[in-house]
Amino acid sequence: MEGGCDRMNKYRFDEALLQCPVCGSRSIGLFETTVNRGATLHNQICKQCGMIFLSPRMTAEGMTQFYKSQYRAHDIESDKPMQWVVEKEQERAYYQVELLVEWVQRPCRFLDVGASSGQLLRMAAERFKCTIIGVEPGDIYRADASRASKVYPDVEALIAASEAPFDVITMSHVLEHLPEPISFLSTLREHVLKTDGVLFIEVPNLYGHSCFEPAHLYSFTDKTLTMMLRAAGFAVAKIKIHSAPKDFGWRNISVLARPSVREYAQRQIFLPAWVKYQRMIGLSGTRHWYGYLYLQARKKLLKER
Length: 305
Known about the structure:
Layout: H1 4-8, E1 28-36, E2 39-46, E3 52-54, H2 60-69, H3 83-103, E4 109-113, H4 119-128, E5 131-135, H5 139-145, E6 150-152, H6 155-160, E7 166-172, H7 181-191, E8 193-204, E9 218-219, H8 222-231, E10 234-242, E11 252-259, H9 272-287, H10 289-304
Parallel strand pairs: 4-5, 4-7, 5-6, 7-8
Antiparallel strand pairs: 1-2, 2-3, 3-9, 8-11, 10-11
Helix pairs in contact: 3-4, 9-10
């Protein structure tokens, strides 16, 4: 198999975004340049709303080819997900189900968008005794998840099948991959979720995660994730920043949101230098004990105010 650099050189990052995809501001600038999988990635920051996004990025056609041939090539063996991948997804799913038990009432219909090998679906079915359905575009992963439930290749196919609305929709480490996340979330709200249903989302936390990959088109803080959900017509009900399923390491953001009156992202001035500083401090807390202690002390002080 070819090396990572050779593989990524086949893909061109030709789609440049000239304005913020969330608030529309043209006041954008370079936030950070990194190298991942042999590709040089330029992440921009909107100086109005603080959203961080990859630009230039692969075109839609390039992304399709990337997901088909490269994205999870090392995670598959003999046309099925490798055991370590399944075990990792089981650990994450266990934590997420426990969080859902704490945050929501028992659902009757449960949808996981980006179901991967179906571990969250399996645990939700066992814990909630509910109807479970998934959406997973990857053929091999969809075949694996289909052993637990009905799984569609995309949301369009699910809508075309006239499935009844869902009480709970989950999206675990999916939102950062979507070219048009606000439109996608709006479609879920309008056509897939019950009017009194809830949406659970988990994404990497910019302030405590490597974040930047060729397939990660957006990188979130708790504020920018909340802003994007509001722009799609959701109100955030619960939010948690954590390192689960491990106590120490990369940090994620989990959010529970409910349909609301459509609310557009409010513009406010963000200082890129301050965001960079918070990222530097946050990353130190995932790598060194002194950074971790600093973050714990800061969290305690904020709670006491």
